[in-house]
Specification:
It is a single chain. By secondary structure, the protein is of the alpha/beta class. It has one domain: Metallo-beta-lactamase, Chain A (4-Layer Sandwich), CATH 3.60.15. About 25% of the residues lie in helices and about 25% in strands. The protein is built from six helices and 14 strands. The strands form three sheets. It has a six-stranded mixed beta sheet, with helices on one face. Helix 3 crosses helix 5. The longest helix has 10 residues.
Length: about 230
Amino acid sequence: MIFKQLFDQKSSTYTYLIASSKGREALIIDPVLENVSNYIILLKELDLRLVKVIDTHIHADHVTGASKLKDITKCSTIMGDLTPADSVEIKVKDDEYIKLENLKIRAMYTPGHTSDSYSFLMDNYLFSGDTLLINGTGRTDFQNGDSKDAYNSIFNKLLKLPDETFLYPAHDYKGEKVSTIGKEKKQNPRLQVSSVDEYVDLMNNLNLKKPDEIDFNVAKNINLGA
């Protein structure tokens, strides 16, 4: 299997490229518009054909490269079925599988950060979007976010996965690249709560700054960055 983790410095976004083997079909998760030319170069270097692009949710801090990648490669665009992005070609349901040759990726509906947030599980690789971060969790104060939904998504879905499951988030702001479910259970400060009410209270008192260009980014991403 080919697996590449790519990083966008401006938005601290992780993008993931996956393929079964060299010379075969590829999939990209959470592409950033400004980096599309770099993805195309990498695909050519690895002799890969991009066939699918996934966005975990409507992002607020960057514009997705999904539409531009589709224009260049004719790949299919994929999001969860509750996305407000009408132009998405394939809308997957909770527990539905996305196939990439001999690879299978399970869609998991994990709302809370946004109402359309999905995570994606491939074997023991969890691509958690902004739902579960390394030593953190996604904020819940815009885009129909809900702290109770986030608690349920994290504690009753993602943390039920095996402890050895690798965690690959959509963002990290401190240079961390990968964690595990087991490590997050023990060390993530947001997860050391004893009840849903305690988690909701924690999230309601973060007092975070509104992301720059959120209105522009969201509007663009509802059209897949077009």
